[in-house]
Request: fold
Amino acid sequence: MTISSLILVVDDDAAIRDSLSKELRAAGYATATASDGGEGVAAFGTRAPDLVLTDLAMPRSDGFELIAAIRAGSRTPIVVLSVRGADADKVRALDLGADDFVTKPFSVAELLARVRAQLRRTGATAPASLDFDALSIDVERRRVVQGGREVRLTPTEFALLELLATNAGKPMFIDQIIARIWRDSPSTTADTVRVHMSSLRKKIEPDPSDPRYIVTEPWVGYRFIAEPI
Reply:
């Protein structure tokens, strides 16, 4: 199991949201959705996506407002998908901080290519290896060594460790973890995450009752606290 980049799709047309999400999941990405800019801002805050796809013309809060809100504190790639292909709209979106602009209709192949390009540019993919104090995670070989001993993890445990370690220092919400690891499976609950996290801690923590690497963030989720070396 590998970690999928999470893409937030923001569009007021439910059919477009569903179609885009289906195509993105088929390409190996995890997805989250929102129906307007306001919902998009909320989803961005709780899900921390790797890339945002947004329409411009939406009720209540439009794509321009969403771009401005995201850019106030983040460099996450934003790709605009809009029928509004006039130069003025493109210039305004790009000036606000959008990274790319795709005019509807567009081909799925072109969209996926632009998504891949933005994710490559920002380095959203995991590094080959992650090294912390007494803990080494070889992402390419899927090998974990803690305190000089190799630790055998299940695919789900490795995916959890990779997700948390690549986001060291940042709290990871339960919803984010479910979206990345279980791809929003409706049968996955917070209890499911806790069970797998408990198993992971027993394998990598010198003292699982006093975690050195993975700490619980009350009412939020988990945080990997070790600093890379």
Notes: The chain has a mean pLDDT of 88. Helices lie at 14-26, 37-47, 63-71, 87-96, 108-122, 155-166, 174-181, 190-204. The longest strand covers residues 6-10. The longest helix spans residues 108-122.
